[in-house]
From TrEMBL:
<feature type="transmembrane region" description="Helical">
    <location>
        <begin position="42"/>
        <end position="63"/>
    </location>
</feature>
<dbReference type="InterPro" id="IPR052906">
    <property type="entry name" value="Type_IV_Methyl-Rstrct_Enzyme"/>
</dbReference>
<feature type="domain" description="Restriction endonuclease type IV Mrr">
    <location>
        <begin position="84"/>
        <end position="197"/>
    </location>
</feature>
<protein>
    <submittedName>
        <fullName>Restriction endonuclease</fullName>
    </submittedName>
</protein>
<dbReference type="GO" id="GO:0009307">
    <property type="term" value="P:DNA restriction-modification system"/>
</dbReference>
<keyword id="KW-0540">Nuclease</keyword>
<keyword id="KW-0255">Endonuclease</keyword>
<dbReference type="Pfam" id="PF04471">
    <property type="entry name" value="Mrr_cat"/>
</dbReference>
<dbReference type="GO" id="GO:0015666">
    <property type="term" value="F:restriction endodeoxyribonuclease activity"/>
</dbReference>
<dbReference type="InterPro" id="IPR007560">
    <property type="entry name" value="Restrct_endonuc_IV_Mrr"/>
</dbReference>
<dbReference type="InterPro" id="IPR011335">
    <property type="entry name" value="Restrct_endonuc-II-like"/>
</dbReference>
<keyword id="KW-1133">Transmembrane helix</keyword>
<keyword id="KW-0472">Membrane</keyword>
<keyword id="KW-0378">Hydrolase</keyword>
<keyword id="KW-0812">Transmembrane</keyword>
<dbReference type="InterPro" id="IPR011856">
    <property type="entry name" value="tRNA_endonuc-like_dom_sf"/>
</dbReference>
<dbReference type="GO" id="GO:0003677">
    <property type="term" value="F:DNA binding"/>
</dbReference>
Length: 211
């Protein structure tokens, strides 16, 4: 039993022995790098340039991979039969990708608890800021929901153009509320959504499109 106890202590002591050795190796490596840079400034500059180019290339590749993944998601879910199978969060992502494809910038999803009635914010270059609410509904969007969105546009999101996007339809009273809105408001219902997602229709009129 005594020998077993000594074995345990020796295993516990290993990290204490290894740590100074690792620190020493790191210091020695840093000193060697400094010495090399001082002795061979030309080589050091070339290595630094290669590392910078590699980093930049890696970042470009990452951006392109993200863009390709977004494009695949948009293409795979652009038809209404796919839209109807999405969750609310996936529908918000789909709308965000369509906005990016249309040239909007700074597209940010903010849906969830505490979103203050707006799921996405975006900027159309030269055309201002947009606040988008997404309703992936099988039922109709009612007047109270339109009023709540207009309230957000009048307060927290004052100065934004509102966009209400739904996979369903608005009730007659909801359409009346939207038509009478004092804030700029664009409504995209099911039929218009199908054309917009497939790129057959623009969200903004030609004179106000972001490109």
């Amino acid at each position: 039993m005594a020998r077993r106890g000594n074995g345990r202590r020796s295993r516990r002591d290993k990290p204490r022995v290894l740590l100074p050795a690792l620190v020493g190796c790191a210091v020695a490596l840093a000193a060697a790098v400094v010495e090399f840079v001082q002795a061979h400034p030309g080589w050091a500059a070339a290595v630094a340039a290669l590392l910078a180019a590699g980093l930049a290339g890696g970042l470009v590749l990452r951006v392109r991979l993200i863009e390709a993944r977004r494009a695949r998601f948009l293409a795979a879910n652009a038809r209404l039969e796919q839209v109807d199978r999405l969750t609310g969060g996936q529908f918000e992502q789909l709308v965000a990708e369509r906005l990016r494809a249309d040239g909007f910038r700074q597209v940010t999803q903010r849906g969830g608890s505490g979103d203050l009635g707006v799921d996405i914010v975006a900027v159309a270059p030269g055309r201002g800021r947009y606040a988008i609410q997404c309703k992936r509904y099988t039922r109709k969007v009612g007047a109270p929901e339109v009023r709540n969105f207009l309230g957000a546009l009048a307060n927290t999101f004052a100065g934004h153009t509102g966009v209400l996007v739904t996979s369903g339809h608005l009730t007659r009273q909801a359409r009346t509320e939207a038509a009478a809105a004092r804030q700029p408001l664009i409504v995209v219902e099911r039929d218009g959504l199908a054309d917009w997602l497939l790129g057959r229709a623009a969200l903004l009129p030609p004179s106000r499109r972001p490109w």
